[in-house]
Amino acid sequence: MAKDSSSPKGGRIEWDETGILRVPDRPTIPYIVGDGTGPDIWAAAQPVFDAAVERAYGGAKGIDWLEVLAGERAQQVFGPKNPLPHETFEKISYYRVAIKGPLTTPVGTGFRSLNVAMRRALDLFACVRPVRHIPGVPSPVSNPDKLDIVVFRENTEDVYAGLEWPAGSDEARAIIACLNSRFIKEDQERLSPESAIGIKPMSKRNTARLTAMAVRYAMENNRESVTLVHKGNIMKYTEGGFRDWAYDTAEELYRDEIVTEQELNVDFGGIRPPGKIVIKDRIADAMFQQLLLRPEEYDVIATPNLNGDYLSDAAAAQVGGLGLAPGANIGDKVALFEATHGSAPKYAGLDKVNPGSLILSGVEMLKFIGWNRAAELITASLIATIGERQVTYDLARQMTGATEVRCSEFGELIRNKIRHAA
């Protein structure tokens, strides 16, 4: 995303039709504390952000934080049936860039995922998950430093669209009856009328805009390749459509900047031309072993919703887990940065959990608005703190000679390093 630092002081981040952000010296940034451990990790993370901005810019820049409500805090104010108030969407849409803690998603019953609802309502079509190893963090693999990817996960379609009906319901039976009578051929096995049924939508439009964002990111960040991950060998018109639409988009919009893997092998002897982005594709299940066995061959990944959910979490496990995995949900008008882990309600209020995911999501937010010096200060200070083996319980139990610290203490250690940074 392009930035323009020559912006006036105060207030709202402007985001024009060409994708240019004009960031004031003191932008208002909405935040959602989150459920469960959300209050703990926000209390640890916000002072880190403020300390980094103060140290980087000597008071010339700052953030005016604005709390907006979602999840349990919204239900306490607006009632149990309103976990996502309309005014929350209005404020995030107006101020353009926001950050949030984890929100609880009940399994099986209750309201559908608040995270998915927010992404769809704000048209945050790209879930962006950078995954790389932080030195000193325990890992289950031998060379975690070889993995350095950014996953672009389509955020609005696929099975997350919410089109499903329970087994035995009138709706499921009606859809199955229609499929059996009209669309399933005589030599095909018919669906059981007692099945649950779901619909998996994918579209050219949403695939195209995700692909365009992934390729632009690769170009702007000196990445060498974009890999399209799909299950098109089985789902030929949804996942296979994703693959074909993505290739078409890359070639239509960025023909001079990209080379396909086939062109690379046929025309260039397998050697990437300088400055070119290689566009390639992999079957989803094969990609899991590729990230384990040959992680250095992958850079930016663009993939449908469910694949991206699986891959980003599995990749994070290779470098130490979700406790240090940042995330963002980005559209054409709004960006919402978030902790990628769950709300862990059993640890709520215990000042115990790792705030690293939210802190690093804040780093991505600061980079997004062009405040790179503040982002670099946080990253360096977090790495130094982990290097001294002063870590929260999730890391301490895996590290020899580590000192376990509380969530708040971990944040304070990072802040102290920021304050004394050169």
What are the main properties of this structure?
40% helix, alpha/beta, eleven-stranded mixed beta sheet
Biggest beta sheet summary: 11 strands, mixed
As a whole number of angstroms, the C-alpha radius of gyration is 22 Å
Overall outline: globular
| Structural class by helix and strand composition | alpha/beta
Distance between the termini: 29 Å
As residue ranges, the low-confidence spans are: none
Summarize the structure.
By secondary structure, this protein is of the alpha/beta class. The protein has helices at 38-57, 72-78, 86-95, 114-121, 170-183, 204-220, 239-254, 261-267, 284-293, 305-318, 356-368, 372-387, 393-396, 407-419; strands spanning 2-4, 14-15, 20-22, 28-32, 64-67, 97-100, 126-132, 148-154, 164-165, 197-198, 225-230, 258-260, 277-283, 300-303, 326-330, 335-339, 390-391, 403-404. α1 (38-57) crosses α11 (356-368), α6 (204-220) packs across α7 (239-254) and α12 packs across α14.
Account of the protein in words:
This protein has 422 residues and is α/β, with parallel strands linked by helices. It has helices at residues 38-57, 72-78, 86-95, 114-121, 170-183, 204-220, 239-254, 261-267, 284-293, 305-318, 356-368, 372-387, 393-396, 407-419; strands at residues 2-4, 14-15, 20-22, 28-32, 64-67, 97-100, 126-132, 148-154, 164-165, 197-198, 225-230, 258-260, 277-283, 300-303, 326-330, 335-339, 390-391, 403-404. An eleven-stranded mixed sheet has the order 5-4-6-16-15-7-8-14-11-13-12, sandwiched between helices. Helix 1 (38-57) packs across helix 12 (372-387) and helix 6 packs across helix 7. The longest helix has 20 residues, at 38-57. The mean pLDDT is 93.
